[in-house]
Amino acid sequence: MIVGLAPAAHGGNRTGRIFTGDESGNFLFRAIHAIGLSNRAESIRAGDGLELRGALLTAAVKCAPPDNRPLPGEFGNCREYLVHEVMLLPRPRVLVALGGLAFDSCLLALAEAGATLPRPKPRFAHGARYTIGDDVLYVSYHPSQQNTFTGKFTQRMLRAVLRRAAGEAGTIPSAMGVRGP
After folding, report:
1. Please, where are the H alpha helices in the chain?
2. What is the pLDDT of residues 100-114, one digit of tens each?
3. Helix (H, G, I), strand (E, B), or coil: what is residue 101?
4. Strand 135-140 vs strand 94-98: parallel, antiparallel, or unpaired?
5. How far apart are the C-alpha atoms of 140 and 159, rounded to whole Å?
6. 163 vs 33: CA distance, rounded Å
7. Edge-to-edge strand order for the sheet containing 94-98?
8. How would you label 16-26 residue by residue, b for 16+ Cβ within 10 Å and e otherwise?
9. Domains plus CATH for the chain?
10. Average pLDDT, the chain
11. Quick one: DSSP state of residue 27?
12. In this structure, are residues 8 and 144 in contact, taking their beta carbons and an 8 Å threshold?
């Protein structure tokens, strides 16, 4: 499960599919496709033929927040949905949090799903891997333009995290067709 922040007003909220229709999504779907978790490198809208393989995309907040910045109450209101999605995953569950706010939401969702959080509390660090009960949480920067356009976050960095998570979840397709680092 790959967990983002929220649907963007001009992206996922407009197109009907999270991470679709904006630059963050373009960046993410290129990486997902490059490691073999989708049949296409781009997502234009819901129903465009994109198929994910062994991956689920979701968000900590389910609606497009004002100014693309969810308030604490919005995270709280939406947490039960994330917890429900987490509980539907086969165990051991493997999650990838995209960004610090999604990371915090994943920790809370795993705790509400019955996992005991390690002490000290895990800290956000790109590329980190945390074992939380029987589950695993990988950490990545968010593919926002602030991160990707500045070079702080690259395709190579995202693919590395996604590849490790998918490998651990057992969802990486055979090496045939998997492209680049």
Report:
1. 12-15, 23-34, 72-88, 100-112, 145-148, 155-169
2. 999 999 999 999 999
3. helix
4. parallel
5. 10
6. 11
7. 57-59, 2-4, 94-98, 135-140, 129-132
8. ebbbbbbebbb
9. 2-169 (3.40.470.10)
10. 87
11. H
12. no
